[in-house]
């Protein structure tokens, strides 16, 4: 629940429903009400501070500690640490407290640093300068200090700091053009009008004389009603009053509250920890019961050298049993790998840099690299099942472009190619004319009929005149240069419809340039560089019901024309002649109708009557438009598109092949969004389309239905809606408000399968779904940085999503799943012999291993190899992962951390532990184990088991490694050497700071025995053999796609080496790779490549002999 909702509930239910008001009264400029007015208590409003961070300086420690101790392992080790402090246990409290402190500290530093970056981004916005009118003067304030009622002076191209009501502008008609891309994703310029009563107050002094109040509704998240938080205003200046600030702005109300995201891998880890905790409790309980059962015989009481005190003997048996139970818990607690969390945190933090360092995800145009805001979800990138994407600015470039137009079956495609005289008299233009029946060929027409020439030019003039485009006499907007006629003007076009701007710019490239609207006359520059003037008589504005707009103009020769453009479905029924081939076009049709003076008089009379109507004015205007826009002559059709981003279609196709379902959630209209889906290959031409929409055709009614989605479809019919959508190959949701996008994502997350979701967008209107999804990705687009700041990851372009998921996500999941399973496996191998040892030491809680080995096993001896593996392992070459997206399916649905695989690793760990313990035990059956007849003691026995253990778990990782570098060799063999050297030093020197020296000369004594060396080799081989055999059988009978490709890669490698010319360098490489294949992937080579392998070895031997 966000804070605004909480405040609402407190106001309503704690203060009282009768005190709740549905509107707010705002005094412009904070002017006090005049004397004698009704008593009024000013409402309290929040300041304009924006908060996207999770922690503050005061709540960081308690809040972060609470989140960390929600983890099962952290909470468990805290309990164990406290137990070790309270009672006498076999091991020191340092063995549990030090790793726990390290885990908590590292995690807190990482999360604190990430949240500091969010604070830094928030401060960049909150400290932006804003000009406020106070006492007739303009003062500069920080954005966060704005209050409701402040009168704000905005300059051109500045961003609105909060929700405003427009008082006046620098334009005489009180209008300004505003883009709302950060709200609804639409980058078009929308026209806003100042309040009629205040639009004449243009200076600071005049505005300061205003004594007025504003009655408006309380803040609500609906973006399409009332005032909108907008950005990028286009007029010289304006004056406006703040009505909603800070977290009460429409954009803030559409933010989804931040929650702690946890990956599927982490959830699996917690589940496994619960299982191992149950195993631990079972072990401790069994040993406690067996201890007292064994000591029930008086002859088997505590030995004489461990005689209990009288106080201990008098203690109640329940207390003694409980104390022993806790002591066994501490003895076996290493089965819960707290160091795994340290390694996982380091792997995530360090691994995230591979994304940021990836040169293929660097965009030269923007000069931006991929950014990792939250490294906790790296592996989740490899588990995505649903991708929710915005359209404008995410799939598209957020830039409408004129593609082509069609006149009498001939298609015109603007291109910057060689200058060609069209019909000998046309301008030196940059266009091709292409026959539509042979679209790919360029046809040059040297002779045309005069009536076609006139028809064609009338079409171009119609597009230059039938619009509401304004001409802006400036060079840049948002740092982007705009030009109309190259070398002649620095003006650019703005309009509430980006389609209109694209059409007018397209006509400019085809030779007809719209210049300006001056004194009710529209001026255009024709192909002969002659200026033509048309008097604008009437504008029949566009609306979503008619889906068309018209203008009535008078040419300089006195001819009257009605030009009309609109969707094909709205134009064709009104056409009496003309045709257009619309195949392959996203059609916007253009038609006209010549008017006689008498007909024009009838039109004027009809329009004036409708405009002056006091009742049902909109209805009468619609009826008048319907009468006027008929008997049209079709001129042609146009195609305007918001061009797709580079490789957007290829990325979506790859995601589909990888088994992901792509949903497009956009605030745009259905027709525009559907065209983008077809262009991006989300929809196919043969795709059956199912539409869920309203039966009413009014645009506002359609919005009302969609805005009530949460109360109707999503709640009452959620299961039916979800079932239909899940069986669709792709889903498109249009006219979606930000919270509705988040509700759709939440609906899929809450379904029975609980799929992993990813949301990607580039604007502030996408923040809610980015926060709601399991993984949120921001695009560094043209709609600000809100999405980037609130996302888990940020990428420059949509195409980079392909590598992020199919390569980085795949690698991260493979690596961390192996890390998790390996940690549990090696800890089972580590602690199960300790459990078995209790059966041979009278359940006396005697440790099998020395304290140094207990402490350093997970910290030093076995930690670095698995950490390095989890950072650089590449089981398949990344080029193959990009070319074959279906490999992503092999790791889908958390396949490598399922219960059967977890059970296999656990059983393998138990088997290895039994082999190590009982193998060493039977070898110790002859107590005169050394050649000099000296007997081995219990510490030598434990050291032998521990030595076999360290080598076995390390070689297990060696067998699982596919990608070898010098770093792997250094770390793996270096870890084993460090263990040997440490053991020699630990047992070879009398350390003065120790109060005991039980390990003195133990390791050297063990290594001096030949049978000890033989037992180590035999036990390691016996431990690893079942895993190798299992993999050989599985790869032969049930190979996965990944394993087939691995075998094929090694086959290609060996063949290439076999055919390499004889030289010493290739000989060394051949030998190196043969040994690598023999040692590392013996199980796959035996069955598939034994002939090639033998021939390669023979070839290597021949080269060596030569």
From TrEMBL:
ATP binds at residues 390-392, 500, 542, 565, 586, 666-668, 735, 741, 765-766. Residues 42-96 form the P-type ATPase N-terminal domain. The active site is at residue 390. Residues 129-191 form the P-type ATPase A domain. One of its GO terms (molecular function) is ATP hydrolysis activity. One of its GO terms (cellular component) is plasma membrane. The chain crosses the membrane at residues 72-87, 271-294, 325-344, 822-840, 852-872, 902-924, 936-958, 970-994, 1000-1025. It is found in: Endomembrane system; Membrane. One of its GO terms (biological process) is phospholipid translocation. It is a multi-pass membrane protein. Belongs to the cation transport ATPase (P-type) (TC 3.A.3) family. Type IV subfamily. This is Phospholipid-transporting ATPase. It comes from Sander lucioperca. The lineage of its organism: Eukaryota, Metazoa, Chordata, Craniata, Vertebrata.
């Amino acid at each position: 629940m966000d804070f605004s909702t909480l405040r609402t509930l407190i106001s309503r239910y704690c203060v009282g429903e009768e005190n709740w008001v549905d509107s707010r009264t705002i005094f412009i400029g904070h002017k006090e009400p005049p004397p004698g007015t009704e008593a009024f208590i000013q409402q309290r409003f929040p300041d304009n501070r924006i908060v996207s961070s999770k922690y503050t300086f005061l709540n960081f420690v308690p809040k972060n500690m609470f989140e960390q101790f929600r983890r099962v392992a952290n909470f468990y080790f805290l309990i164990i640490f406290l137990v070790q402090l309270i009672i006498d246990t076999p091991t020191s409290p340092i063995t549990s407290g030090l790793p726990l402190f390290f885990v908590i500290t590292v995690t807190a530093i990482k999360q604190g640093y990430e949240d500091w970056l969010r604070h830094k981004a928030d401060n960049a916005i909150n400290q932006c300068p804003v000009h406020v009118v106070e006492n007739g003067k303009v003062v500069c304030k920080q954005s966060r200090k704005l209050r409701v009622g402040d009168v704000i002076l905005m300059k051109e191209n500045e961003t609105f700091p909060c929700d405003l009501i427009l008082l006046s502008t620098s334009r005489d008609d009180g209008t300004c053009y505003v883009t709302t891309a950060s709200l609804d994703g639409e980058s078009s310029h929308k026209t806003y009008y100042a309040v009629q009563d205040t639009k004449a107050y243009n200076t600071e002094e005049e505005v300061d004389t205003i004594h007025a109040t504003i009655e408006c509704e309380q803040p609500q998240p609906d973006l399409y009603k009332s005032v909108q938080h907008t950005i990028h205003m286009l007029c010289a200046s304006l004056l406006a009053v703040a009505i909603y600030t800070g977290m009460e702005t429409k954009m803030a109300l559409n933010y989804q509250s931040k929650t702690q995201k946890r990956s599927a891998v982490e959830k699996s880890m917690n589940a496994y920890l619960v299982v191992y905790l149950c195993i631990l409790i079972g072990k401790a309980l069994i040993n406690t019961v067996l201890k007292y059962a064994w000591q029930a015989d008086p002859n088997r009481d505590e030995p004489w050298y461990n005689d209990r005190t009288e106080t201990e003997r008098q203690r109640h048996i329940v207390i003694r049993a409980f104390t022993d139970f806790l002591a066994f818990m501490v003895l076996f607690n290493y089965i819960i790998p707290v160091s795994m969390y340290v390694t996982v945190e380091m792997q995530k933090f360090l691994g995230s840099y591979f994304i940021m360092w990836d040169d293929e995800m660097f965009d030269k145009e923007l000069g931006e690299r991929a950014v990792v805001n939250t490294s906790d979800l790296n592996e989740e990138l490899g588990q995505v099942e649903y991708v929710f994407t915005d359209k404008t600015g995410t799939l598209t470039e957020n830039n409408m472009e004129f593609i082509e137009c069609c006149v009498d079956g001939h298609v015109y495609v603007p291109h910057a190619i060689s200058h060609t005289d069209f019909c000998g008299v046309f301008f030196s233009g940059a266009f091709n004319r292409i026959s539509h029946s042979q679209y790919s060929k360029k046809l040059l027409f040297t002779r045309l009929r005069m009536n076609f020439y006139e028809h064609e030019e009338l079409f171009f003039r119609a597009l230059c005149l039938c619009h509401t485009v304004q001409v802006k006499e400036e060079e840049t907007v948002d740092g982007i240069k705009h030009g109309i006629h190259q070398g002649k003007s620095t003006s650019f076009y703005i309009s509430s419809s980006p389609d209109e701007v694209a059409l007018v710019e397209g006509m400019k490239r085809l030779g007809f340039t719209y210049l300006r609207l001056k004194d009710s006359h529209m001026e255009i520059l024709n192909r002969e560089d002659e200026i033509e003037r048309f008097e604008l008589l009437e504008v029949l504005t566009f609306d979503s019901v008619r889906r068309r707009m018209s203008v009535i103009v008078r040419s300089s020769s006195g001819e009257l024309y009605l030009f009309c453009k609109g969707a094909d479905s709205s134009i064709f029924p009104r056409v009496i002649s003309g045709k257009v081939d619309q195949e392959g076009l996203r059609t916007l049709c253009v038609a006209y109708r010549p008017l006689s003076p008498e007909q024009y008089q009838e039109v004027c009379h009809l329009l004036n009557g409708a405009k002056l109507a006091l009742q049902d004015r909109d209805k009468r205007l619609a009826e008048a438009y319907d009468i006027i826009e008929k008997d049209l002559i079709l001129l042609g059709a146009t195609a305007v598109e918001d061009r797709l981003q580079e490789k957007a279609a290829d990325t979506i196709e790859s995601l589909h092949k990888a088994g992901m379902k792509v949903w497009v959630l956009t605030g745009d209209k259905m027709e525009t969004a559907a065209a983008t889906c077809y262009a991006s290959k989300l929809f196919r031409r043969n795709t059956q389309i199912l539409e869920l929409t309203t039966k009413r055709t009014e645009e506002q009614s359609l919005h009302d239905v969609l805005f009530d989605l949460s109360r109707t479809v999503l709640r009452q019919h959620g299961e039916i809606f979800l079932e239909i959508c899940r069986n669709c190959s792709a889903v498109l949701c249009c006219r979606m408000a930000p919270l509705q996008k988040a509700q759709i994502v939440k609906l899929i997350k809450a379904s029975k399968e609980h799929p992993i979701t990813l949301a990607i967008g580039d604007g502030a209107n996408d923040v809610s779904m980015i926060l709601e999804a399991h993984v949120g990705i921001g695009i560094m687009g043209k709609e600000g940085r809100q999405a980037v700041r609130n996302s888990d990851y940020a990428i420059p372009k949509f195409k980079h999503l392909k590598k992020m998921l199919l390569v980085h996500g795949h690698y991260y999941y493979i690596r961390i799943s192996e890390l998790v399973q390996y940690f549990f496996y090696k800890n089972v191998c580590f602690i199960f012999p300790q459990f078995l040892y209790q059966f041979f030491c009278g359940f006396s809680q005697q440790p099998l291993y020395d304290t140094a080995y207990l402490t350093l096993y997970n910290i030093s001896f076995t930690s670095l190899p698995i950490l390095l593996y989890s950072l650089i392992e590449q089981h398949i070459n990344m080029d193959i992962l990009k070319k074959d997206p279906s490999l992503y399916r092999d790791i889908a649905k958390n396949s490598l951390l399922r219960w059967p695989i977890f059970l296999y690793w656990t059983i393998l760990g138990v088997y290895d532990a039994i082999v190590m313990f009982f193998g060493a035990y039977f070898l110790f059956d002859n107590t005169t184990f050394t050649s000099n007849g000296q007997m081995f003691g219990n510490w030598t026995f434990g050291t032998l088991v521990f030595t076999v253990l360290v080598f076995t778990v390390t070689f297990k990782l060696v067998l699982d490694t596919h990608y070898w570098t010098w770093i792997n060799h250094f770390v793996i063999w270096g870890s084993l050497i460090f263990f040997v050297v440490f053991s020699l030093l630990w047992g070879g020197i009398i350390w003065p700071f120790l109060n005991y020296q039980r390990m003195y000369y133990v390791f050297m004594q063990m290594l001096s025995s030949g049978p000890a060396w033989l037992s180590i080799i035999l036990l390691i081989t016996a431990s690893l053999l079942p895993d190798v055999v299992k993999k050989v059988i599985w790869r032969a009978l049930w190979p996965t796609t990944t394993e087939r490709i691995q075998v094929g890669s090694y086959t290609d490698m060996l063949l290439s080496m076999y055919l390499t010319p004889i030289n010493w360098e290739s000989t060394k490489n051949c030998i190196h790779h043969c040994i690598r294949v023999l040692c590392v992937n013996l199980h796959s080579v035996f069955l598939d490549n034994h002939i090639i392998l033998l021939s390669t070895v023979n070839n290597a031997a021949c080269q060596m002999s030569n």
